[in-house]
């Protein structure tokens, strides 16, 4: 079989191995692909792998040899999965490849917002401590997480992993989930409705998928219902939050901090209101990008392809 990867550079700039896919057939990897290049590059393949390249309905009939589209990610909003289903082409994704990785990143954002370690380190390097001549100082008082409440919206694998980390820091954990989940074996922990979580949490971390129901979940109304000075974290999807409303809440102190690995527009436009808001911390959509997690994506996709052609498809998201 022929396997084509349309945008492989971000996943593998050369520090991990494509070997699990090479073992399955002829593998062709393109670093990036423009929309007008998709058909010429994918026209004769049986398996087409993408990360963020958009595949709409027009491609279904134009790729007659195609049997399987694989998302080198968990989210699949860039692919018209219903159209491919109508055309008899299965679409699969990879899941749970970076659970610990993303949860650790969310905790890293939180710790930096609470302790400001990089800010103080830079101040020391700039000579500020030497000039002051005192044995101790701080630019902002550090915040201790013990006995505070962590609210987790979306209690899948990543949310549950973050909950365990928060518990290890001495935090009470609240979670809101759209479907029933077993409670963890630590306490204090409780599943609660969203209004209670928003009102009681000192820290709120988003780990839910982007759907019509969750788009703009954090908005002016929900922000106003939060505990004053709460910290908000988003390592899930940018459009879960209304960025203008979050920026306003930061300006007036309703939000005490915002840490995000994702934004509505990536990369952000220069006029994004969050870039000028106080008490913010941003990373460029990299929570998932450890070498461990990226290699697991390739390994898991190889398993998906093998399973599909063996007649036992796995992680198919469009019902085929």
In short:
This protein has twelve helices and twelve strands. It is α/β, with parallel strands linked by helices and 320 residues long. It has two domains: 2-97 and 290-309, Rossmann fold (3-Layer(aba) Sandwich); 99-282, NAD(P)-binding Rossmann-like Domain (Rossmann fold), CATH 3.40.50.720.
Please describe what this structure looks like.
- With 320 residues, this protein is an alpha/beta fold.
- It has two domains: 116 residues, NAD(P)-binding Rossmann-like Domain (Rossmann fold, 3-Layer(aba) Sandwich); 184 residues, NAD(P)-binding Rossmann-like Domain (Rossmann fold, 3-Layer(aba) Sandwich).
- The protein has twelve helices and twelve strands.
- It has a seven-stranded parallel beta sheet, with helices on both faces. A five-stranded parallel beta sheet has the order 2-1-3-4-5.
- Helix 5 packs across helix 8.
- The chain is globular, with a radius of gyration of 22 Å.
Describe the strand arrangement of the main beta sheet, using strand numbers.
Answer: 8-7-6-9-10-11-12
What is the 3D form? globular
* Total number of strands: 12
* Rg, Cα atoms, Å: 22 Å
Sheet having the most strands: 7 strands, parallel
The first-to-last residue Cα distance is 20 Å
The CATH architecture of the largest domain is: 3-Layer(aba) Sandwich
The average pLDDT is: 97
| Percent helix | 25-40%
What order do the SSEs take from the amino end to the carboxyl end, as H and E?
A: EHEHEHEHEHHHEHEEHEHEHEEH
CATH superfamily of the largest domain: NAD(P)-binding Rossmann-like Domain
What would the CATH topology of the largest domain be? Rossmann fold
Q: Give the helix/strand class.
A: alpha/beta
How many discrete structural domains?
Answer: 2
Oligomerization: single chain
Query: Which CATH C-level class of the largest domain is it?
Result: Alpha Beta
- Strand-residue proportion: 15-25%
Number of helices: 12
């Amino acid at each position: 079989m022929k396997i084509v990867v349309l945008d492989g550079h971000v996943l593998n700039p050369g520090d991990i191995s494509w070997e699990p896919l090479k073992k399955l057939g002829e593998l062709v990897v393109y670093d990036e692909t423009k929309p007008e290049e998709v058909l010429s590059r994918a026209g004769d393949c049986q398996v087409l792998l993408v990360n963020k390249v958009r595949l709409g309905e027009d491609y279904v009939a134009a790729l007659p040899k195609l049997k399987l589209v694989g998302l080198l990610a968990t989210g699949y909003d860039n692919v018209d999965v219903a159209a491919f289903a109508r055309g008899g082409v299965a679409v699969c994704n990879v899941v749970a490849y970076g659970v610990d990785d993303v949860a650790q990143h969310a905790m890293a954002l939180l710790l930096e917002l609470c302790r400001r370690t990089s800010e103080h380190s830079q101040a020391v390097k700039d000579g500020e401590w030497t000039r002051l001549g005192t044995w101790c100082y701080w630019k902002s008082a550090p915040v201790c997480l013990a006995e505070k409440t962590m609210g987790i919206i979306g209690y899948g694998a990543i949310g549950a992993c973050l909950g365990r980390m928060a518990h290890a820091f001495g935090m009470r954990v609240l979670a809101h989930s759209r479907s029933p989940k077993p409670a963890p074996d630590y306490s204090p922990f409780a599943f609660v409705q969203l209004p209670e979580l928003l009102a009681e949490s000192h820290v709120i971390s988003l780990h839910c998928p982007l759907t019509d129901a969750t788009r703009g979940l954090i908005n002016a109304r929900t922000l106003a219902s939060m505990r004053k000075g709460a910290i908000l974290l988003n390592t899930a999807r940018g459009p879960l939050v209304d960025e203008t409303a979050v920026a306003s809440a930061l300006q007036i102190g309703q939000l005490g901090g915002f840490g995000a690995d994702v934004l509505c527009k990536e990369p952000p436009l220069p006029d994004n209101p969050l870039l000028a808001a106080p008490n913010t911390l941003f990373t460029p959509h990299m929570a998932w990008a450890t070498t461990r997690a990226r290699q697991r994506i390739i390994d898991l996709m190889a398993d998906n392809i093998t399973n599909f052609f063996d007649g036992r498809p796995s992680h198919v998201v469009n019902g085929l």
